[in-house]
Design a protein that fits this description.
233 residues; mainly alpha; Arc Repressor Mutant, subunit A; 3-stranded antiparallel β-sheet; 10 helices; elongated; DNA-binding; Myb_dom; nucleus
Length: 233
DNA sequence: AATGAATGCAACCGCAGCAGA
DNA sequence: TTCTGCTGCGGTTGCATTCAT
């Protein structure tokens, strides 16, 4: 049998239109089937990826908001590199997007940190902030039953880019800079010890109840508000 | 204005888990 | 129970754009 040559690389607008049409017709399952019936010279895998990461109308476009950034931080400390899990808590964001975001920003942060370290030989990481992470023995993948047992309150004031932690007497406030430094320092530890990223138990996730969020991987798409006319011009 | 570096993002690859035959 | 195909996930790569010099 002659295997039909599969297309690779960037998708054309025409391919997008075609894929959207067939997903609308058959749903976003059975990607191999979809790839075949659509006539696209793409693998089912490729079609799925294109849909999930780009064409899905439920997706949010544009920069991450500070709230989202904070949430990613918190969730990463909880789940580690479980991007799909994290994406599930961020409606309209894909695992790929979050993964890219994380890599970019952690890398940037690491570079900034390096610069700072070169300037000042004294490490700033002796803050009480790093205490809480280094004292944590939980891995990000630790089961959630223990995750919520910490007797700390974790609140986020919208738009303020700070985490408020602790009880009324011992309230601590962390800026995003501190958070990033913490992330960076934990990553260094990970690199050195070949251990998973230590979850800061105090970064528990509890200001956004799960019920408020719907997974981007849930089977829901094409609500009536979607308008694809721009595809067809 | 040119060009090299840095950054952001889309897409691919390989693997694991799951479901159905 | 085993096999096979499909789906989803995480890691990685490569290209396009933006920025700095």
């Amino acid at each position: 049998m002659v295997q039909e040559e599969m297309r690779k690389g960037p998708w054309t607008e025409q391919e997008d239109v075609q894929l959207v049409f067939y997903v609308k017709m058959f749903g976003d399952r059975r990607w191999d089937f979809l790839a075949k019936v659509s006539g696209l010279k793409r693998s089912g895998k490729s079609c799925r990826l294109r849909w999930v990461n780009y064409l899905n109308p439920a997706l949010k476009r544009g920069k991450m908001t500070p709230q989202e950034e904070l949430l990613v931080l918190q969730l990463h400390s909880k789940y580690g590199n479980r991007w799909s899990k994290i994406a599930g808590k961020l409606p309209g964001r894909t695992d790929n997007e979050i993964k890219n975001y994380w890599r970019t920003h952690v890398r940037k942060q690491a570079q900034d940190e390096k610069k700072n370290t070169n300037k000042a030989s004294v490490s700033p990481s002796s803050s009480n902030f790093s205490n809480c992470s280094s004292s944590s023995a939980n891995s990000p993948a630790e089961d959630s039953s223990t995750e919520r047992n910490d007797c700390v309150e974790l609140l986020q004031v919208a738009g303020e880019n700070k985490i408020y932690e602790g009880d009324e007497q011992n309230m601590m406030v962390y800026s995003m800079d501190e958070i990033w430094k913490e992330v960076e320092s934990t990553e260094e530890i990970e690199t050195r010890n070949d251990l998973p990223v230590m979850a800061s138990t105090t970064w528990d996730y509890n200001y956004c109840p799960d019920s408020l969020w719907t997974s981007t991987h849930d089977h829901c798409y094409f609500d009536n508000h979607q308008d694809f006319s721009f595809f067809t011009g």
